[in-house]
Write a structure and sequence with these properties.
four-stranded antiparallel sheet; Arc Repressor Mutant, subunit A; alpha+beta
Amino acid sequence: MTGDEFIYNVDTVTDVLGLFEQTVLLALLRPRTALGREAYGRAILTEVQLRLERQVTAGSVYATLDRLEQKGLVSSHLGERTAARGGRPKRHYVVEAAGIRALNRSKASVDRVWAGISRPLKGAV
């Protein structure tokens, strides 16, 4: 071996989504979060908390949504103003095709990492 086989490609690794980003994207795809094909912040937050089985801040979800939008993985638009929200509109989010591709790449990467490992893991806890 020349060592070339072990080059660590940072660009490829950063294309893979982190767990929280995956959770937020998947929350957008879950039927109960969506209003039609669009989801909004509070419903996304609730779904993320349910899936992670822990409390997370709304700010962390909104920051992740902003980051995903900057990457072109989701898009958003403002809905109509409602009296229930004091005249403020809800921001609705939609997963873009690039977001679906990123989720598929991330899932494939995790599957490769876990390949050949028997579950549940046994040993010292």
